[in-house]
Amino acid sequence: AKLVMIVKSHPKREVQEMAVAAIASILAAAQDEVKPYAEELLSVLKILMEQVGDSELKLRARATECVGVLAVMLGKTVFERVAEGFMQLALAGMQSQFPELREYTFGFFANMAEVFGADFVPMLETVIPLAIESLSLKDHEVVTASGDLGMDGDDTEDSDAGEAKLQRVRTDLLDEKAAAAHMLGSVAGAVGGGFASWVERCVAALENAADYMHPDVRTNVHGAFGAMLTVCHQALGSPVWQPGFMKHTGPPNHPEQGVFLLPMEVRRHNNTALVHHLNTIHAERDKEVVAKAVDTLAETMELLGPESICVNADDLCDELSSLLRGKAPCQTYEDSDDEDGDEDHDYVLMEAVMDLVVAFAKVAGPEFMPAFEHMLKSILKYTRPGNDSKDRVMAIGTIAEVVKALQVEEACLPFVDRLFPVVSAGLLDGDHEVRRNAAFCAGVLCLRAPSKMVQHYPTLLQKIAPLFNDQNVEVVDNCCGAISNMITTSIQNVPIAEVLPGFLSKLPLKSDQEEIPTVCSALLVLIDSGSPVLGPHLQKMTEVLFSSLLANPAQLKEPMLGLVVQGAKKVMAAAPEAAQAASAAFGPCLLYTSPSPRDS
Questions:
Q1: In this model, does residue 275 exceed pLDDT 80?
Q2: Element (H, E) at 158
Q3: Where are the alpha helices (DSSP H) in 94-238?
Q4: pLDDT given for residue 589 in this prediction
Q5: 167 bridge partner residues
C-alpha cells in the first residue's frame, strides 16, 4: 500500500520508477497475498501506461512490466475483463522509439500468452511481426572520418588515405533484441500448435540473430529454437521413438538404408537449430550461452528422439568430451569481468552438460556404450571426495541415468568395476543428496548388470542397512528401490529373513513415488517364491500392494497393474487371514479386475 502511494504522489520520477519495480518484485514473490490490492494496482498502472511524455517513458515501461506480472498472478478468469484495454496500451507503447519501453512490452506480451494460452492465437499476427522487426533492426553504422575523430568507437581502422572507420553501436537496442527473442520462445511455448504458421518466419529471424554480438540475444535465440521445434512436434506430430541410431543412419557404407520418420518440416528446422547449437558449443566463449545451447539440445533430443542427432552423433560426442574435460573455448577463455560469478556459471554449465549426456544415452540406448567409455573418466573426476557435494550429486545421478539408458547387461558390464567403488563411497557420504543418488545408482546397477553385481550384494546390504534410519526420506526410498532391484534380479543371493523386516518397515514409500513399480516387482517375486519366511510379513506386503494401487498420481500401468492385483489375490488364497486384515483399510482395491491378456 505504501508503494502504491509513492507511485501515486511522489514528486520524483526516479522514486516512482523504483517503487513500480519493487511492486513487480513483490508480486512475483507474494502471489495470492497481493490479490486484495489488485484492483487499485491495475487502476494506478493503467494511468502510468497512458502517459505519452518523453520523461514518463521509463516509468511507463516499468508499469507495463508490472501489469504483465500481475496478470500472471491473477490468472485468466480475473484478468480477461481488463486485458483488451491493457493490450491496446501496450501496442501503443510499441510505436515508441524508446527501446526500454519496447523491451518491457515484449515481456508483457509473453506474460499475456502465458495467461491466455491458446486463446492468445488471434494476437499473434499483431505481436509476432513486432518481435521479428526488432530482431532485424540495425543497431550499428560505420562512420568514416578524417584526422582526429574526437570520439570513441568499438572498432577503428585506418585506411591508406589517413581516414578512420568507426563502428558505432546503439547499445540501447541490445536488451530490446534479447527481449524479442525471449518473447518468441515464450509465446510459442504458451500457445503450442496454434503457433505453427509462424514457425518458418520466426526460425529465419532467429537464425539471422544467432551470431549477434550480445550474449543475452544469443542465449535467448537458442531457447527460442527449442520452442519452435516443440511447436512443430505438437502441430505435425512425430512417431514414438525408440532408442538407437543404426536404423536411421543405415549400416556402415549403406546410408541409403537409413529410415527417417520425422516430418520433413521438423527435420529441416531441427537441422537449422542443431547447426547453431553445435557451433555454439564448439566456439562460443560465453558459458551462459553454451549452457543454454546444451540445455535446449538435450530437451530437443528427448522430444524428437535419435533421428534428431543421428547424423551428427560423432560431432556431439566430441563436443561433450571437450566440455567434460574442461577444454571447450567457454571454459578456457579468461574473462576478467566475470571472475566473481565464474563458479556459478561453471556449475550451471556442467549441470546442463550432464543432462545432455543423459539425453544422448536415452536416444542412443545400448549404442551409447562406446561414447560412455570415452566420457566416463571425465565424469568420474566430479565424484572425488575433494569436489563440492553438488558435483558428486550431479555426477552420480548422471552415471545412474546413463546405466539405466544402456538397457542391456552386455552394454553395462564393462563399467561395473569402475562404478561400484563410487557408489559404495557415495552411500557413506556426508551429504544426503549424494547418498540418495548413490542408493539409486546402486539399484540401477543391480538391475542392469545383475551377473556382476551379485558379488557386491553383501557389501551393499551392509551399507544400506543403516540408511533405513536416515532422516532424509528420499534416501530411505531409494534404498528401498535398491533392495527391490536386488530381490527382483537375484532373490537367491539376498538373505530374505534378515533383509525383509527392515525393508518392509519403510514401506509404503514416503516420497519417491516413481519407485513404486520397482517395489511392487520385488514383492511379486517374493510372493511367487513361496518362501516360508514370508508368513509373518504377508499382511504388510499386501498392504503395500494395496497402497500402491491407490497412489496418486497413479504409478502402476499395465501389465504391472494387473500383476499387482493378481499378486494380492494370490496372498488372499494362500493366507486369507493376513489378506483380510490388510484389506480392512484397502478393500475397494479388490474390486479392480485385471484385464485378460487378450484384452490388454
A1: yes
A2: strand 156-158
A3: 99-116, 124-136, 174-191, 199-209, 215-236
A4: 47
A5: 142
